[in-house]
Amino acid sequence: MKKMLLSLVVMALAVTGFAQSEKQVRWTFDSKKIAENTYEVRITADIGGNFHMYAQDGGDGPVSTSFDFTKNPLISLDGKVKEIGKMKKVYEEAFSSEVRYYEKKVDFIQIVKVKGKAKPTLSGKVEFMVCNDKECLPPSTVNFKVALGG
């Protein structure tokens, strides 16, 4: 009985820890047409408090921000996700390496092309990790959907 109770407590704490990362970053997703059948998808991270979020190439140690787009035969990705924001490069003792991150806000831009007259939805997930001067929260994943051409 004690082992079962201990297991439940550990699981509850783990779930609480994972939920904390999502509370530190507010994500918004939108798209705009930039050419015939071509859209710019803007994924914005507003980072709360004194936390920072690692870049797509965050360095050795932290979990870098990454995007996993769901395959859709009506959509093709044009290039890689670009980052727009004020990136900081610092040496972090906790990881014994130079890391790259953003504070407050960063925009991620993905160009997509739509085949034909379709009005599909780009969906996927973003994984990210946030830290401050005292702690790092467990990595978190957020699912998203962005309407194109609608």
Explain what you see:
By secondary structure, the chain is α+β, with helices and mostly antiparallel strands. It has a single domain, classed as Immunoglobulin-like. 15% of the residues lie in helices and 56% in strands. It contains 1 helix and 11 strands, in the order H-E-E-E-E-E-E-E-E-E-E-E. It has one helix spanning 2-24, and strands at residues 25-35, 38-47, 52-59, 66-69, 75-84, 87-92, 97-103, 105-114, 121-128, 130-131, 140-147. The strands form 3 sheets. Strands 1-2-8-5 form a 4-stranded antiparallel sheet. It has a 4-stranded antiparallel sheet with strand order 6-7-3-10, with no helix packed on it. A hairpin with a 2-residue loop joins strand 1 (25-35) and strand 2 (38-47). The protein is elongated, with a radius of gyration of 18 Å. It starts with a helix and ends with a strand. Mean pLDDT is 87; it is low at 1-19.
